[in-house]
Amino acid sequence: MIADALMAYANSLNWREGVTKHEQTHLVLLRAASLGVKPSQAVEIVLQKIKEAKGQVDFAGILRQWKRAYKYITGKSSATLSDNAIRQCDGSYTKPKLKEFSFEKLKQMTASFKGDISKEWFLERSPKRPRDAHEFLKELYPLGESVALLSEHNQRKPVIIWNHDLRDFSNLTSVKGGFFLSNPVTGRRHLVESLKSEVNPTGETWRSKYAVTAWRYMLLESDLSEIEHPGVGKEWLKFLALLKAPVVSIVSSGGKSIHALVRIDATSIEDWNKKVRKYKEPFRELGADVSALTAVRLTRLPFCYRNGTLQELYYCDPDANSVSIAQKGDLVK
Fold it and tell me: Residue 231, exposed/middle/buried by CB under 10 A (0-12, 13-18, 19+)?
């Protein structure tokens, strides 16, 4: 493994010299950046060696060293290493307690919604009414973009690379249903050194961050159980109706969950993560599955069948803005 190669290199250095081990740290982090080792793994190795040598841990110094090494090797201006990563590896960082789902909080948020809510309620207010999966994708992705379509979560290569010219494609019908990658891709295979493994010796990828061409959408999903929380499905739909964000689509999963795509128009994966990070805990408390809040994420494709159950389209508005669906009234095009 790459991390093992980095540890072997670190073991070859003389850690007896110096107090804070800046020189050794610099060399290890340079090698880590060149090998493509994850920042957290590299820092963990550095901290282990400093402690073994009974040196002094300089948190700020290690962070600066990593950023310099990363920039020197990759040419990028900043490192993808959080401020707490060093303290987390060291054990001195206490991770904040995560918020838990509060049904009461969700109902408080939706109390202003009057009346019943259903698929029909959203369809009546949907500015667009695509008739099939092809028309749906055309609404969300402009001419020239490609979208990865899959019938299984773990498929490395998409079943279909969709674009505007591909009108006639068979419905993705399977036990698992039909999926698409929420952000567009290049539509071609990429060979990535850091993705090489025993099961993927070439590092082949079609649907990872290396293939994404725009960081446009975020997925909001809730899969809370009606058995454990009776009525939670309706409350989640009310939450989506009241959400002051550009909700471009709402699709049922063919099961218990609802998938909503929200446009955030990030400039990069780093920008995407920065924009979304602040919403994770508030959304978790309101019932969102925060594990779905990642920049590279599969979501349900409408008009496909999941083990015989249709994944239904509730709402489609490619030009959505931050005015909630409930506030827009009956503006149907």
Answer: exposed
More confident call, 179 vs 83: 179
Helix (H, G, I), strand (E, B) or coil at 260: strand
The pair phi, psi for residue 149, each rounded to 5°, is -110, 135
Domain encompassing residue 202: 103-328
Count CB neighbours of 194 within 10 A: 12
Closest of 234, 240, 245, 238 to residue 112, by C-alpha: 238
Predicted TM-score (pTM) of this structure? 0.72
Mean pLDDT of 152-172: 84
Strand partners, 150: 179
Tokens found for residue 122: 């959203």
247-252 β-sheet, strand order: 215-222, 258-266, 247-252, 313-316
- Asked if 149 and 298 touch (Cβ cutoff 8 Å), the reply is no
Any idea which residue has 């975020």 for tokens? 218
DSSP string, 142-211: -TT-BEEEESSTT-SS-SEEE-TT--------BSS--EEESS-B-SS-EE-GGG--SS-TT-EESSSTTT
pLDDT of 122 > 60? The answer is yes
Q: What are 203's two structure tokens?
A: 């590092």
Do residue 202 and residue 292 come from a single domain? Answer: yes
259 and 120 fall within a common domain: yes
Residue 19 CA from chain centroid, whole number: 40
For 244-254, write each residue's pLDDT tens digit.
Answer: 999 999 999 98
pLDDT reported for residue 76:
60
313 strand-pairing partners:
251
List the beta bridge partners of residue 191: 204
For 298, other C-beta atoms within 10 Å of its C-beta total 21
Cα 286 from chain centroid (whole Å): 18
Q: Is 98 within a domain?
A: no
Report percent pLDDT > 90 for the chain. 56
* Residue with tokens 């980095």, as numbered in its chain: 6
User: Do 17 and 160 belong to one domain?
Assistant: no
- Who has greater pLDDT, 199 or 267? 267
Give the pLDDT score at 331. 35
